[in-house]
Amino acid sequence: MDKKKHTSRQTITTTMAARHLRQTLALKLLTQISLLKPPPAILPPKPLTPFPIRTLTSIPSSIKPLSAASPFSSAAVDNSGRGGGGGDGEEGGGIGREYLRLSDEQLMRQCQMETFKASGPGGQHRNKRESAVRLKHLPTGIVAQAVEDRSQHMNRASALARLRVLLALKVRNHVDLDAYSPPQELLVILPEKSTIREKGVGSQIKANNPKFIMGMQALLDLLHAVEGSVSKAAQYLGLSTGAVARLILSDDNLRMAVNELRSSKVPIPKDRKIGSYIQLRA
Q1: pTM recorded for the entire structure
Q2: Do residues 252 and 64 touch, judged by C-beta distance below 8 A?
Q3: Strand 111-116 relative to strand 171-172, pairing
Q4: How far apart are CA 74 and CA 70, in angstroms?
Q5: Adjacent-strand bridge partners of 172
Q6: Which residue among 69, 120, 139, 235 has the highest number of C-beta atoms inside a 10 angstrom radius?
Q7: Which pLDDT band, with edges at 50, 70 and 90, does 95 fall under?
Q8: What angle do CA 264, 265, 270 make, to 5 degrees?
C-alpha cells in the first residue's frame, strides 16, 4: 500500500514538473517573439509649426490663359477693332452688342470650330472620340472651349454659351457720358428702385437669366467709361453705391471683371477689392 502511494506521488511530481517546464518554454518563446515586451513609451505630440506661406510673384509659364487679351488690358477689343476699351471708337458704336444679339447659327458662322480629344479623369468612355470643342471668334480672337461632355453636340452648345459670356466681358462699346442714356439691356437688370428705371421695363432680370449677359456688358461699358468708379456709375444709373455693389456681386464673372478693371486703373489695396458690400467703396 505504501509502495503504491509513493509511486502515485512520484507521478504527480513528474506531471507537475513537466507542466512547469512547458510553461517555462512557452514563456521564453513568447518573449523571443516580442509579444511580452512592454509597449513603447507614448511621447508627447510635437508642437505644430505654422505652414510656410509662399507669395506668387509671377505666373508660372505652365499656366496659360484661355485668351491672351485681358478684359480691360490694352489688348482688349473695342467697337472699332483697336485696343483700349472704346475710348477712341465712334460715338454710339456698339458692335459688341451686335455680337450678343446674333443667333447661335449666326454667331457660329463667325467662329472657327476645332474638335479634339481632351485628357483627364472620367472613365474609359470619356472623349474616346474627338468630342471636345474649341471655338475661336474670328472678329475678336476670343476663344472658348468645352470638354466635359461625351457628346460633341453638347460641348458645342456649352462652348457657344461661354463664348457669349466672354464677348460680354472682353468687348467694350463706346459710351458718351455727356449724353448718356442707359440702353434697354442695362435697364432690365437694374433694381426696381432705380430712379431712371421706367415702370414699363418690367421685373428685374437676375443673373441666372440668359438675357443678363447683355445687361452685364452694358454695365461694364459704363464702368469702363468712368474708370471703374462704382459711385460715379451709380449716379448715372439712379442708384446708391450699395445697390450697384449688390448688382455686381450677384454674378461672379461680373465681380471679377470689375475688380480687374479697378485694379488696372488705380492700385487698390487688397481689402478694397470687391468681395463684400463694405469693400465696394469707390
Answers
A1: 0.61
A2: no
A3: unpaired
A4: 8
A5: 78
A6: 69
A7: confident
A8: 65
Tell me what pLDDT residue 26 has. 74
Partnered with residue 171 across adjacent β-strands are 77
- Backbone phi, psi, residue 113, to 5°: -105, 135
Here the cell at position 218 is: 452694358
With CA atoms as reference, report the closest residue to 214 among 160, 165, 163: 165
Residue 154 corresponds to which cell in the numbers above?
Answer: 453638347
CB 100 within 8 A of CB 168: yes
The full DSSP string for 117-148 is PPPSSS-TTTTSSS-EEEEEETTTTEEEEE-S
Nearest to 230 by CA among 270, 265, 207, 262: 262
Alpha-helical (H) ranges within the chain are 2-32, 95-101, 104-109, 152-170, 184-187, 212-225, 230-237, 241-249, 252-265
> Which of left, alpha, beta for 194 (phi over 0: left; psi -120 to 50: alpha)?
beta
- Helix (H) or strand (E) segment spanning residue 116: strand 111-116
- Residue recorded with cell 488690358: 73
Pair 226, 172: CB distance under 8 Å: no
Cβ–Cβ < 8 Å for 183, 201: no
Write the CB contacts of 52 (distance below 8 Å, at least 6 apart in sequence): none
Of 70-79, 235-244, 248-257, where does mean pLDDT reach its minimum?
A: 70-79
**C-alpha dist (Å) from residue 84 to 68, 70, 142, 170:** 15, 11, 16, 11
